[in-house]
Amino acid sequence: MTVRISALGGLQVFRGSEELTSFPARGTRCALLVHLALEGETTRDSVMALLWPRSSPEKARHSLSQTLYELRKDLGEDWIETAGEVLRASDLESDAVSFESAVAAEMYGEALNLYGGPFLEGTYLVDSGEFQRWVDRHRSRIERMRRKAQHAQTESRLEEGDLDGALAVAHAWVDCDPLDDEAQHVLIKLLAAAGRRSEALSQFEEFERMLHRELQVTPLDDTCSLIEQIRVGGAEVLGSQRSMALAAGADSRRAHHSKAGATEAEGARADRSVRELLEAELSGEFDILRKIGEGSMGVVYLAREVGLRRLVAIKVLRPEHVSEETARRRFVREAQAAGRISHPNVATVFQVGLLRDEVPYLVMAWIKGTSLADRLTSERQLEDGELRRIIGGIAQGLAAAHATGVVHRDLRPANVRLEEDSGRVALTDFGLAATLATGAETPERLTLTGELLGHPRYAAPEQVSGEPVTERADIYSLGVIAFEMITGEHPFEASTDVELAAMRLYEEPRQLLALQPQADPALAALVHRCLALEANHRPRAVEIAAELTGPGSALIPESAEAPSPELGRLLVELRARRLPLVVAAFMAVSWALVFGGRSLMERGALDLTAYLLGLVLLVSGFHAALIRSWFHGKPGRHTTSALERCMLGGVVMVWIAVSLLVLVS
User: Does position 426 have pLDDT exceeding 90, yes or no?
Assistant: First the structure.
């Protein structure tokens, strides 16, 4: 009699048409049954290592024999064959196996009908981490196949002109994984195509809230662009969306005839292959969530570490560089260089390894926020307090790297991350890092003589001329970054990055104060010291950090008693939130109102009650302005927190109470 296992969306066991309701509670027996159903054939040693990893070989073998005896007693003899060390399922069926077979045969509708939920959802085997890892690997593979089936089924419905059917599949896709960027994008687009504009906008808003709550990230740019089209385009855009949706299948077939379409399709295939490789190799250990960035050498994905449930960034070498030995070795060296540095201003590397075909990858801390490059693009110039904080953070990260014998060699705004919540500055991308002669290891030469490594816009003169670099090359790059942060322009004026690189060999940089007269002269002088042509004339990173943040520095006014670093940081923070400006403005307004009101009272044009009510309103408004400035004074986008609402509510209540007291007295 056939034994049938339903493992998608929970666990059920059937013998013929009879459901064995008590069977799933028998943990080890069910684990062995499911393992045999999916593997088809295995060995006794493999099962023993999977189900009884902590037992001695003798005890594990006895436990396996006992479990097989009990299974035969419960289910009969026909479902399993035993031949020496080999165990083989002969009359055992599983919905998971049928699902995988249907996907492999491109019978996506049948596959989705079989899918009832994640593999062995809610099922655990106590004291066997090996079995749980086996479950996680199969669960990840099945979820990838489910995603593939839903994507293909959506396209199939669109090719048939069945927009309602495509919407139903897209809704089911999102229900299976609400954090899937592609699923949400497809559903929003189809809702707009169906003329359901408000639903599309509501779906996006809910998705945006969910991403921020669960992953602390924002929707991808293409989804945001789609929403802007829906918001401003009206019926015309909705109609074009419908046409685009219904023509998606034909467009995808014709895309290969267009060079641009072919290039885009090739890039999409490369992205899918990288993600599929990561999911196949790292399933059970990491859940790959989305691509979050890419550079000339690597692609970065956001992932969740299964064991610790923390978010991480996984960087993998781009497929086109896998065959290049030097590129692979530089990529691995990035992990080795960053792994040697333990400092808050350097992104932590947790793990490094090789995927299939010797593809290297590294796992590092996920820093929620933005790059300095993006920040400068949006704001162009930064305020003094923010300037000092960011430059000081970069210098502290460089000081930690240089102390361990590592030179970054590719310092630029794109490789500086700014954490959103804490404001922490972190250096990333040590792919071109070099080991100093003073470091713990002998430097490995991966650079040809005269080869320029590093971005020409930020490279030091000695990098441009092909000379050996020291840690002072990073200081020059920091000087260029600081110059751009203060003025919004490069220290040299040229039409191309190559010209900029060449000019620094024979010309002096432009004067910072001439471009930005309001800049702090001491900070400007420090930047010019960093841009010195001779490397030995530049300050060390530790000196820059001390000069920016230490007590008694040239950038913090000296007093009879030097302020503590905490006080210095508080003063910088108050200035960044524009509190001194708010206080000064209210002092001027208060002086005018107080003395103006007193003058009106003397002439009999204003009574005492009105004068006192005005004073109460002025004091209350002053406190409300201070609260708003503290929470919203910094540039950028802000939300109103519960604490802010409580504080403002308290000010309003006090204002009402005191005003009533004035009126009745």
Answer: yes
Per the CB < 8 A criterion, the answer to whether 545 and 482 are in contact is: no
Give the percent of the chain with pLDDT over 90.
Answer: 27
Nearest to 5 by CA among 134, 84, 123, 110: 123
Distance CA 246, CA 76 (A): 53
The 3-state secondary structure of 326-345 reads: HHHHHHHHHHHHHHCCCCCC
Measured distance CA(173)–CA(180) in Å, rounded: 9
Q: Are 130 and 22 in contact (CB under 8 A)?
A: no
Per-residue three-class SS string for 518-530 = CCCHHHHHHHHHH
Q: Which residues share a beta bridge with 378?
A: none
CA distance 117 to 288: 19
pLDDT exceeds cutoff 60 at 266:
no
How distant is the alpha carbon of residue 407 from its chain centre?
A: 26
Q: Under DSSP, is residue 257 helix (H, G, I), strand (E, B) or coil?
A: helix
117: helix, strand or coil: coil
Neighbours of 537 (CB within 10 A): 11
> What is the three-class DSSP state of 560?
coil
β 286-294/86-89 pair status: unpaired
3-state secondary structure of 175: helix
Quick check: 203 and 180 in contact, CB under 8 A?
A: no
The rounded Cα 351 to chain-centroid distance in angstroms is: 17
Q: Distance between CA atoms of 224 and 185, rounded to whole angstroms? A: 9
The pLDDT of residue 635 is above 80 = no
- Strand arrangement of the beta sheet that strand 369-371 belongs to: 369-371, 416-419, 425-427
Q: What is the DSSP string of 17-64?
A: TEE-TTGGG-HHHHHHHHHHHHHSEEEHHHHHHHH-TTS-HHHHHHHH
More confident site: 246 or 594 = 594
Element (H, E) at 185: helix 181-193
As a whole number of angstroms, the distance between CA 92 and CA 90 comes to 6
Query: Rounded to an integer, what distance in angstroms lies between the CA atom of residue 442 and that of residue 430?
Result: 17
Identify how many contiguous H helices and E strands the chain contains and give both numbers. 25, 17
Whether 130 and 46 have beta carbons less than 8 Å apart is answered as no
Looking at residue 10, what DSSP letter applies?
B
- Residue 225 CA to residue 246 CA, distance in Å, equals 20
**Cα–Cα distance between 131 and 27 in angstroms, integer?**
11
Give the number of other CB atoms < 10 A from CB of residue 310: 12
DSSP structural state of residue 562: P
Quote the pLDDT of residue 448.
38
Q: How far apart are the first and last CA of the chain?
A: 94
Percent of the chain with pLDDT over 70: 83
Catalytic residue IDs: 410
484 has a pLDDT exceeding 90 = yes
The per-residue DSSP string of 457-513 comes to TT--HHHHTT----THHHHHHHHHHHHHHHHSS-SS--SSHHHHHHHTTTSPPPPHH
Contacts of 488 (CB under 8 A, 6+ apart): 376, 380, 381
Contact 9, 121 (CB under 8 A): yes
Q: Tell me how far CA of residue 27 lies from CA of 12, 33, 67, 124, in angstroms.
A: 12, 10, 11, 8
Taking the C-alpha atoms of residue 570 and residue 611, their distance in angstroms, rounded to an integer, is: 36
Residue 27 neighbours by CB under 8 Å, 6+ apart: 125, 126
